[in-house]
Each structure stands twice: as structure tokens, then as C-alpha cells.
Amino acid sequence: VTLFLLTCSALLTYCQIEEESSVHNVCNQTISAGQGIITSPNFPNNYDPNTYCKWQIRVEDDRTAVVEFRYFNVENSPNCAYDNVQIYNGPSTSHPPLGTFCGPFRPNLVVSTSNRILLTFKSDDSTQKTGFVAAFYSIHLQRAEPNSCGGLLTDDEGSFHSVNFPKSNYPNSMTCVWHIRTSPDRRIVLRFGKMTLESSENCRFDSVTILGGSTDSDTSRFLGRYCKRSETPTDIQSPGNEMYVTFSSDSSG
To answer: Residue 78 in contact with residue 95, Cβ under 8 Å?
Structure first.
């Protein structure tokens, strides 16, 4: 993208994460569990050359599977052609891919649309690295209505995104406010799955602003403002049980 394109890819997920119960470091497993850990073979030592592994993951029927990479170091290459990790939105490679990953940096959070996913790992005969550690868990998503511009979210877990995501650019001159509210004894953790915004100094053009108070104007509870095109913010935790997320775009195209 360029500075002249208004592009926003902002899938955010808020959830509670429990401790993982088991580690799966053997290739070609079918896993039925609500949570767990998958590692590349031999981790934390280097993986072997010419390896192909797959893990079929099935979480509870009424929930959604999520993958969060805790560590990642896989041989980098153009289009991840040599070594890679792939995640599919279903139990086989015939389902739509959710991402292909390689290199030394942790991928963003991967959120499926169902309770079943396939994770594969491939290495060629050249360079080997230490591999990856991936946590999977299940969440029950309260999803905002497609292309909704703001709204109230009250479930313990959920997701929302910018208008038109992921098919096309968001519109000009819009302001959307999402109010997240959970029970008084809980806090909210906000996680960006992906973000691509028009960059500007001090985020004066397009931005996502997060407040941790009980109104969308309580700047004393300012938690962050984001607008960089290729930077995914770290997890954001609210001080209380409410959070406001405001997306604003300017009139430029």
C-alpha cells in the first residue's frame, strides 16, 4: 500500500486465555482439545531438513480456534517458498489458507471462522532454524455485524473489524466507535490480528484510538493511538471492565 491509499485491516480480538494443558511436538497428529502447544520437531534445537508435518486441531464444537505464536524462527525466503508454516481454515489443505509464515519474526494472531484448523510445517534440504512454538486455544466470539461501524460488545470474547475488511479499503470521512464492556470483576485484553492504516505524523489523518474509561471522551484513560502501516500493536489491557475503540479516517483518498 502507499500513503495515498486508505487501507485498514484491523481485526481485533478480546478474550481470556487459560494455561495450556499439553505440548505436541510429534509430527502428524490429530488433536481434539480446547487448548495446547504445538512445536516444531526437535525444538528448541534446529528442525531437520526435508520435513513435512501436519497437525489437525479440533476445539469445542461451539467455539472458534485461535493460534498464537509464542516463538518463531523459520528460514526466510521470497513467498516463504523454502521453509514455512501454513494454517488452513479447516481440517485439510483444500480449505482456504489463513496464512503462510516464515522468517525470524512472530506472525500475528490467527483467528479461524470455525472449530477446526490445519497447521502444517515444511522444511527443505538447505538451512535449518530453531522453528516455532504455537499456542492454540478456543474462544466463543461475539462478532460485530458485517460492515458495522461501531457498537456495543458485551460478551467475554469477541472480534470486530473495519468496514469492508478484508475485501477492500475502508471509506473516507468516517468515525466508528466500539464500546466493549464485560463484568465488573474482569479486565479486557485487546489484541490486533492485523492492521494497515494510512501513516501520518502524530496519527492526524487515519487512526485507531483506545480509551480505558467509561465514556468515549475520557482522555484521562488514554491507552494508545495507532496509525503505522506495517506495525501491529502489542496487546492492550484495560484498567477496568470497559474500553472504547475509535477508528477515524479523513477525507483524502
So the answer is: no
Retrieve residue 54's grid coordinates.
Answer: 501436519
By CB neighbour count within 10 A (0-12 exposed, 13-18 middle, 19+ buried), where does 88 fall? buried
Note the pLDDT tens digit of each residue in 75-97: 999 999 999 999 999 999 999 99
217 CB-near residues (< 8 Å, 6+ apart): none
Look-up: residue for cell 470474547?
157
pLDDT band per the 50, 70, 90 thresholds, residue 144: low
What secondary structure does DSSP assign to 8-34, as a single string? ---EEEE---PPP--EE-SSSEEEE-S
Beta strands 207-211 and 174-181, pairing class: unpaired
pLDDT, position 229: 65
Tens of pLDDT, residues 218-244: 888 899 998 876 566 777 888 888 999
User: What DSSP line would sit under 183-224, residue for residue?
Assistant: -TT---EEEEEE------GGG-SSEEEEE-SSSTT-GGGEEE
pLDDT for the residue 21 = 54
What is the CATH architecture of 11-15+156-249? Sandwich (2.60)
pTM of the model: 0.63
Q: Which sequence spans correspond to the domains of the chain?
A: 11-15+156-249, 23-139
Contacts of residue 215, defined as CB under 8 A and 6 or more positions apart, other chains included, come to 244
Classify domain 23-139 by CATH architecture: Sandwich (2.60)
What are residue 39's phi and psi, to 5 degrees?
Answer: -125, 155
CA distance 208 to 226: 5
